[in-house]
Amino acid sequence: MERKNGPGFAYAIIVAAGSGSRCPGPKAKQFLELGGQPLFLWSVQTFQECPAIAGIILVGPKDDPQARLEMQRTSAGFDKVVKVVAGGESRTASVCNGVAALATAFPEIAAADPVLVHDGVRPLLTSELIVNVAEQVGARQIAIPTTTPTATVKKIVGAIISETIPREELGLAQTPQGIPYGLLRQALDYWQQHPKIGITDESSLIENLPKDIRKEVIIYNVTGEPTNLKVTFPHELQQAESLLRNRMQSQKVFKPRQATGFGYDVHAFAADRKLILGGVEITGHTGLAGHSDADVLIHAFVDALLGAVGAGDIGRHFPDHDPAFKNLSSLYFLEQTLKIVRERGFNLEAADITVVAEQPKLTPHIPAMLVKLQQVIGSPCQLNIKATTSEGLGFTGRREGIAAYAVATVFAD
Q1: Which helix (H) or strand (E) holds 377?
Q2: Which parts of the chain register pLDDT below 50?
């Protein structure tokens, strides 16, 4: 079949709506932690980083709005996640809700566009598997990843083993399962009119269609991944932890002895706001617009630190639509960012920050800023802050706002 090219040609629905009854504990299994983050978030991260994916719908527990809010909060840094919606009474009902959200979020979606449905408790899938599945989806072709059983398979009737089934003819289905959007809508509409017990994936959803429609559809087998396990029982979480450790140990991640990051930020002036720069309140002047305290100096500094250790940007870690950060001091952002720097095995060696503003005059406030920042940093480093103007040019010259630039250098432990 003709392969699709170009970035962002497929959409994802991550179903993380189960109650986790088979994995008892204080949390539903999709919220259990693996490597320091919830199980479902590993899938979100992989789909986010896959260039084939244009957008993600996340489906959460039906009767737990607090859990869905938590999912929304923890996935806020992933811009491809456009909606977190409630699931249904069954997996297929949850997929229905995800498809409805997909149609609303992406009205331009075409009937032939691939939609990948993934179980949120399969945390260790790879971007390669996502692409392999998406590329095999056609107008009347779905793609299902499978693995071959390694044990001898027996057919059991009652208490009697009636025969041995050749395992090379069997496949253990995984997700993500890819299906064209139009066919998925058709299959779900038919299921709603003719509900059938035992539909556990998109392949069986297609098998539920009338024979005259079903015979036109090809169910294509994609080679699955042995590590793409589904966490259903407690021992499988332990297995996932072991697989994750092995994966991280086998990946050769380059770690420089020294690295430098660059940061830039800008905020407009806003009435009825305090002006906070470098953690210091500067009285007698209009403040800056922003979700937090709009400390443009620290925001640029944070971005420089994150850039130096390859950890994304400030928007990913502290999104400006998260109510937890509303009017929060940016010194907190700096504190948390320095934790990330240290967790990645680095220490801050030097930082140089330039603030561009026509007013107010910042030079008298720089010593207090240095003290504030050094208190948070808590370890020896070279720290420099400069203030300048843009000689009346641009938005800063027109006194519409303040800009800041920062360069940070870190060194490995």
Answers
A1: helix 366-377
A2: 1-5
